[in-house]
Specification:
Layout lengths: L1 E5 L8 H8 L4 E4 L14 H14 L3 E5 L11 H21 L4 E3 L9 H18 L7 E4 L12 H11 L5 E6 H6 L7 H14 L5 E6 L1 E2 L10 E2 L9 H8 L7 E4 L9 H11 L27
Parallel strand pairs: 1-2, 1-10, 2-3, 3-4, 4-5, 5-6, 6-7, 7-10
Antiparallel strand pairs: 8-9
Helix pairs in contact: 1-2, 3-4, 4-5
Length: 305
């Protein structure tokens, strides 16, 4: 797995790849604007080019944009849905300018309209977005939910329903959040349970649909439906829960982004979490372990969920 983290853009888009690399990331996820705003200032082409140049110069292997938190593509309230669709289209256009490998988004909540109606609304929202950007190249990646309240797509089956209704091939895929999986009732910490999860993924989702992971431990218990992220190895999933995931050759070219809690020490906890994950990696037979690279730790933290 390609390991990375969510990096803030307070110091500018072009600084995010440098910051990510400096703390040991091979991949970074960013916001393309404030996640708490419906609309942000226009993204200058020059800023986007500087970001792309920094990604190349730092040698990052994958990048993603995470959409803003206000968007609900399943809303039964027409004004809210219209506003969400407009904001989502803006997110797509920003992601295209930045040239990232995926736009990760929460599918939405049905707010009482019911599961089937909500899933149909998400699919229609995606079809409209794809039609509005017919030449787009950035995959739109639905993130699985923890299952709290009326949030949709907490199961692989619901994700598969949306993918099937949209029928957009490689332009739409999935991001699996480990905390959300665990909170929704999916265990994967043993050989048997991990094998069962992989079998379900291969049986339920189209081939190649999983294009990214969010690597988060869970504060709450299995099946709690609570979206409460914890640092790697400090929560209910535990270190062993990540061992098979990060070593699975199926995901060797798939990025896994940390969204674990930070504190006043900036990205120090990301450094620890990346170290914990890399400590689980098994080196090739007969190969000597590589020495860890020297890294400095920027002090500015990022706001993540």
């Amino acid at each position: 797995m390609i390991l990375g983290a969510h990096i803030g853009i307070a110091d500018g888009l072009a600084q995010a790849p440098r910051t990510g690399r400096s703390i040991g990331c091979d991949a970074i996820q960013i916001f393309a604007k404030s996640p708490q705003m419906w609309a942000g200032p226009p993204l200058p082409a020059s800023a986007a080019e500087e970001f792309r140049g920094a990604v190349r110069s730092e040698g990052l292997r994958a990048t993603a944009v995470h959409h803003g938190y206000l968007i609900n593509l399943a809303s039964p309230k027409r004004p809210m849905l219209a506003r969400s669709r407009t904001a989502f289209l803006d997110e797509i256009r920003r992601a295209e300018l930045l040239g990232v490998n995926g736009l990760i988004f929460h599918p939405g909540a049905h707010l009482g309209s019911g599961r089937d109606a909500g899933l149909a609304t998400i699919a229609e929202s995606l079809r409209r977005a794809l039609e509005a950007v017919p030449d787009g190249t950035v995959p739109l990646l639905l993130e699985n939910a923890a299952g709290q309240g009326t949030a949709l797509c907490s199961t692989l089956e619901e994700l598969a329903t949306v993918l099937s209704e949209v029928d957009a091939g490689p332009r739409v895929g999935v991001t699996l959040d480990t905390c959300h999986l665990f909170a929704s009732g999916v265990a994967f910490g043993t050989e048997e349970s991990y094998g069962a999860l992989v079998d379900r993924i291969e049986d339920v989702l189209p081939a190649g649909a999983v294009r990214a992971f969010h690597l988060n431990d869970a504060k709450a218990e299995l099946g709690s439906h609570l979206d409460r992220h914890e640092n790697i190895g400090k929560g209910q999933i535990g270190l062993e829960g990540f061992r098979r995931l990060v070593n699975d050759p199926r995901w060797a070219e798939v990025p896994g982004y940390l969204e674990t809690p930070l504190d006043d020490h900036g990205y120090d906890r990301y450094v620890e979490d990346l170290g914990s994950l890399r400590g689980l990696l098994g080196p090739p037979v007969g190969a000597a372990p590589a020495p860890p690279p020297a890294r400095r730790t920027p002090r500015r933290a990022s706001t993540v969920k």
